[in-house]
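ugh ok fine here u go
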Amino acid sequence: LSDLCEVVHLYDCDYLLISGRPCRFPAVRAAILAKLPAPPDRIVSLHAYRVGDWYPFRSVGGRLTDPKTTAAVGAMVCALSEGQLYKFNLRSRELGMKSTARFIGVLEQTGRLKPENVLFANLELEDRKTRLPEATFDFYAPVFLGFRQLNVERWPASPLYRVTFAHPQDARSKALPLKVTLERSTDENVDLDFKVIAVADADGNQQPNGVVLLKLQTLKDEYGYWLDTGIFSISARAIEPTR
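structure:
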């Protein structure tokens, strides 16, 4: 709850609606009010909230008895909102999921993304038309590039890409650290949002971009995540026929 309240506060929300079954518990409402993510008069609990006669799951007294029903009714309103409701219009077709990767950079071994390691800030990954400044980081060994949603150092970050040597022997033969420069890709037909555009060794000598590899990897497991790679392993064993 503390983290969620911090998100509401950082986004400077006008109102906070507390829905779902947990909002029926006084302790939950008290915990949220104690954090003051918004002014108290703008924190609205939907438990026992008064609704109109149109609401299908209202009580005899005209109140919400189960806050979970607001999800179903909200979906119904959203489906009927474009031209089918009296004096109400909502362009629901413009609503959609957006990436939460707002700050991308080099992750620490602890999984944190420190401010000095942020390469791209205030990103809108859906907008490929806007060209962003290039970003350069020092590369010694395989590392993860990750993201977090908020401009708060302690906020958890998630792995997104893994940067490795194309050939492991280069770790011994190249003058390290390598200076790897990334650029936001504007090509909507490619899978990766970023690409390596320059690599230089510690002596300033330019290296082929293929010296390092940038690949999608959202888990720290050596074999990655099957949703990233399209590959998953199945343990199979021969079954002896029954006699």
